[in-house]
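In response to reviewer comment 3 from the previous cycle, which asked for concrete evidence that the modeling workflow produces usable outputs, we include below a single protein chain processed end to end. The sequence was submitted unchanged, and the resulting structure tokens are shown without manual editing.
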Amino acid sequence: MNPQVLKRAKRRDRMARWLIGAGGIGVIGCVALMLVLIVSVALPLFRPARAEVTARLPLPGGVPAGELLALGLDEYLETGYALDRSGRLTFFSLPGGQFLDGVPLRPPRPGVGVKTVEVGADDQLTLLWENGTATLARVVFTPEFSAGGRVIRHRVVPMGSMTPAAGAPLAASLRPGEGDGVLGVFWLPGNRFLLQRDRPETLPDGTERTASQAAIIADDPLGMVSAYALDKAGATLYAGTGNGHLLRWDLSGETPRLLDRLTAFRDGRAITALGLVFGDLSLAIGDATGGLTTWMPVVSDPGLEPRLALIHTLARHPGPVVRIEAAAHNKCLWSLDAAGTVHLDYLTSERNLLALRGKLPFRIYRANARGTGALSLDAAGQLQLWRIANPHPEVSWTVLFGKVHYENYNQPAEVWQSSSASDDFEPKLSFIPLMFGSLKATLFALAFAVPAALLGAIYTSQFATPEVRGVVKPAVEIMAAVPSVVIGFLIALWLAPRVEAGLVAVGLFAVILPPVLILFMAAWQGVRRCQWGKRLERGREFLILIPVLLVTAWAAWGAGPWVEQLCFGGDARQWLYRVLGMRYDQRNSLIIAFGLGFAVIPILFTIAEDALSNVPKNLQAASLALGASRWQTVWRVILPSASPGVFAAVIIGFGRAVGETMIVLMATGNTPILDWSPFNGMRTLSANIAVEIPEAPAGGTLYRVLFLSAVLLFLLTSVLNTTAELVRHRLRKKYGQF
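The workflow returned the following structure tokens.
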């Protein structure tokens, strides 16, 4: 050979090797970069919450530290306020602490101080004065924007007052009532509560007056009441006792009604603090041992009223819990113990997000409505401004992959429900229904596609004539070019309604087809002895089966209404629900089996047919020479030898089905449920990303959880492909096909 030609050939071989290697490394690099991207977006979900002191402030306005009763601050950490025993609200700037102004809340008479104060999540203050009168006011922060920047305006809005009809109260809770009225609950000595409603009314002569209705709530002595809580609507009252008992009243009717009277702690430890979680469905209980638990009404048996039950156990404090405050926008809980330690916990995930301890114990601690900052007062009388980063409290491994007892659920469940119309919604972010939906859709699709594709590949490669193979194989491969959105569109809008209308006919066809084929093959044994039958058998057997399939389908469709009327009372869907308890959804797993199976068949058929066709012909010839039939040769020789390729085809088809998006998005109800019934739908991981990502705020919890589901999908397909490759190599070694 000419040395120059040989040199050029070697040079081209080296260039081709470098290009192919660079291309392979580039593909691996691109895949790795994709994984790094989605992991980097999902990783912040598991970063811990952070809190840091950004300023240490002197007490504003010269207020003695011992006189302070409450603190508060706005959402932007620019203005704070302090309430002292004289009823004066002192406003100051943050983080500098400069005095802004003071707003005195008018006492019922001169010289009367504040006995207790209750601060709501929306800066609503209930002040109980020393003479027993209670007043309700709210601190309102309003941001104003101008060319000079943002300015936080503050004002104090009086919302009413109330004097108890009887007794000297220990504490009070007031809520805005109907119209301009006020609803008040007063905690009285002797295990009693006074429920009082003051409503304005107009007399016949046109004059106005305030009508007052009062009722005493008392209970059998279970122990002295040590803490109580009233929900935001003033409809439910909770009380805890010093020996661990818990009571709940319904205040929405004309007369209070006792709903619960139970022993919360059998060891008799005192309930020291009560607080309602955002949404007012769950009750947080702090006890004398530092325990923090949440309780919720649940239905134990159908037909019974909901009763309080222990739902979540949160991180324990080093000392007795003395105060519990709920966040204003999520299910976070702030709790302060007698040792001056502050905890931040999240209800659903049961995560202890923060445990704050100063050099000196905290006396008062108050977070803002957004949970981005807080003010604290320590034992030395110094104010501290905290900046808090708590972006994703809802997520934990238990929430993503375990059972969680959500609000309004009677038992723990695995649920995906990322949004709701209610502001106090509790996000439910379990991956289990989505993983189950992906597995269910894939298995139903493969149950239809694998037999059809493999049997078709066996027939085409081993029994069909070259002419038939030259037509069938390209036709099946062209199926892969049909866009998945077209398949989903046809399946959802054309096939699903027809299957619903002819449900019994479809089931009847599936039942009668096997015996019809068996009877036809038994009859064919006599026909195949004829000369024309032998010619038809030589690779063209499918031609005689096509009319049989069509006639069977026509007969099943015609007999469907008669069978439905005779066996199912004229309504098969209602019969399924009444007898079997199954609901029939138009877009269900059977529809997915057809649609997703149609998309998977081409890749299954092509890889399996190539593997079967590449089995050395000498193996087939040796088997036939030893007297084996064609089918025995396929079953005993061809299939074992081609098993690596066939297995690879099934696994690749599995991965193709798991990752499919458009078909399952369009042809299912996209309902994330855990049910193997073939008559309802599902939601898959890939479809969930397509459904949720347009509405997910960038950088939010849902946004990052969707990227985490993409990581999960990536790892699932990677594990499948790696497992398939390992098994394929073992099969190749076993059966000697290289």
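The CA atoms of residues 229 and 238 lie 5 Å apart. We consider this sufficient to address the reviewer's concern, and the full set will be provided in the supplementary archive.
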